[in-house]
Amino acid sequence: EVWEHTSPSNMRDQWGMWYDWAIRSRLEPMKAAARMVKNHLGGIIHAATERITNASAEGLNSVIQKLKYVARGFRNRDRFRAAIYFHLGGLDLYPAGITR
């Protein structure tokens, strides 16, 4: 039920009820999870209601890490930066007059 709400206040109430239940549990791992959720509840609710992720940033980072691995080292930072711009810059490198 905690994920079914679109209103942040309703979601906060549901998570609060879950927290109360979990903290009364005799299971220490459940209590630890409840405390962690309580500490991050604002971010959890924001992510669930706004549906915003950092997936695009993670994708760019993945490509940059792959460039680092494939190159196994550039001569200097400027060349590494140029490689990042070349691969991620969205340049249109097709010659004029040629269609894709």
Automatic annotation (TrEMBL):
It comes from the Bacteria. It holds the Pfam family DDE_Tnp_ISL3. Residues 1-84 form the Transposase IS204/IS1001/IS1096/IS1165 DDE domain. PANTHER family: TRANSPOSASE FOR INSERTION SEQUENCE ELEMENT IS1557. This is Transposase. The lineage of its organism: Bacteria, Pseudomonadati, Myxococcota, Polyangia, Nannocystales.
